[in-house]
Amino acid sequence: MNNISKIAVFCGSSFGNNDDFISSTKALGKAFARNNISLVYGGGYRGLMGALAEAVQANNGHVIGVLPEIFNNEKVKIKQVEDELIVTKDMHARKKQIYDIADAFIILPGGIGTFDEFFEIFTWKQIGYHEKNIAIYNINGFYDTLLSFLKECCIKGFLREEVLNSLIVKTDPDEIIEEIKTRKTTLPSKI
After folding, report:
1. Which of 169, 174, 139 is nearest to 30 (CA)?
2. What is the DSSP secondary structure assignment for residue 76, as one 8-state letter?
3. Contacts of 78 (CB under 8 A, 6+ apart)
């Protein structure tokens, strides 16, 4: 897996209500730049998405934004932080483009859009559409409740433990990148 050069990050277009979300997101952006990893994200300059892109760019990293036409406006593109901007027809095309470009995925705090992206890419891994690593950057335990629920799904027979255990869950950005680069997970067939 050490051929990791582009990682997609799914996170909030809001900042949340804890400054640690912002500072930890910026720390991840710096780690991307230090490790020569291009950021692939949903485009724009809002919330954690913008803070991450700005941190990558401010540290001489490379940023690829993928934005649906509906968001290709000045309310989203408050400041230019992408080195490359791809505009897609709609949200479905945006997600597909991001999934195709990225070598791996990191999930940060966010809302229903972030959850949608996480569950879709996690489902795709489970059914064998890809073998790319998926990591959760669990800032301040943001995903503890979700991870507990997913464990409950295993206990009740709706999710295999090897699928859940394929997730990388870390609180340190450098550890996330290192494990993404080194972990190889092949899941058994879902069928």
Report:
1. 174
2. T
3. 44, 45, 46, 50
Number of H helices, E strands in the chain: 7, 7
> Long-range CB contacts (< 8 A, 24+ apart) of 152-156?
none
63-68 and 84-88 beta bridge pairing: parallel
Q: At 52, is the secondary structure helix, strand, or coil?
A: helix
Q: Which amino acid is at 176?
A: I
Q: What is the mean pLDDT of the chain?
A: 93
* Ranges assigned E (strand) in 119-186: 133-137, 168-170
Tell me how far apart the alpha carbons of residues 1 and 67 are, in angstroms, rounded to a whole number.
28
Q: What is the pLDDT of residues 48-103, one digit of tens each?
A: 999 999 999 999 999 999 988 887 767 665 567 788 989 999 999 999 999 999 99
pLDDT of residue 189 exceeding 90: no
pTM for this entry: 0.94
Q: Burial level of 101, CB count in 10 A (0-12/13-18/19+)?
A: middle
d(C-alpha 34, C-alpha 8), whole Å: 16
